[in-house]
Amino acid sequence: MSGHSKWSTIKRKKGAADAKRGKIFTRLSKEITVAVKEGGGGDPEGNPRLRMAIQNAKGANMPKDNIERAIKKGLGGDASSYIEQTFEGYAPFGVAVFVDCLTDNQNRTVQEVRAAFTKNDGSLGTNGSLEFIFDRKGVFALPVTEEMNIEELELELIDGGADDFIIEDDYLTVMCALEDFGNLNKKFEELSLEPENAELQRIPNNTKAVDDEGFKKIMKLVDTLEDNDDVQQVWHNLEVGEGQEELLG
After folding, report:
1. Is the pTM of this model over 0.70?
2. CATH class of the domain comprising 85-124+206-239
3. In this prediction, what percent of the chain has a pLDDT beyond 70?
4. Are the C-beta atoms of 60 and 24 separated by less than 8 Å?
């Protein structure tokens, strides 16, 4: 569990940093636009993928106007230009990196992602090469309140498919198998609980620790990838050592 916990801390802190730069809004807007087309229209009540995308956008304090514009783009057909693309490779010191993209120009994305790896002493691998390192899981981040009975809540969520829990920084992170994601999302709705974030993530089943200089070098690659507008998510199996969180800036 310690590996999951330290890894999730990086993702949360990076998410907060991205929100300050406005980058996360670009990612969320794309997901909303694609959800309208792929999920079945602009009504979140009848489109679970859109409902979740809007929920995540609200959790990131994305303005209502941005959400509405993204929905209109999807209704107007703009989503048809986006193609899902993934990349697998290694950062320095053998740290695995998985990149999820939504792009309207695959050639551009390939060139830019490859350049990011090369300039930061990493290397791209073939698709499928990291399957043994990452598991696809549903992950829900629920703010913890004083009124919550965590033990009772966990039992309810296990009934909905939850198989792992982490309590950290006033958040209850709930994990489930890929196939239980929809059922667990419904369970949250039944309990009238709204997670701040709900998504399918690539969870590393093993992690790698490096020294401070190595940590900064690897995170430079991650930052470069996350700053690319075609990149939706960057997953990795870097473990955070004591005090290394402060190096994120």
Report:
1. yes
2. alpha beta
3. 89
4. yes
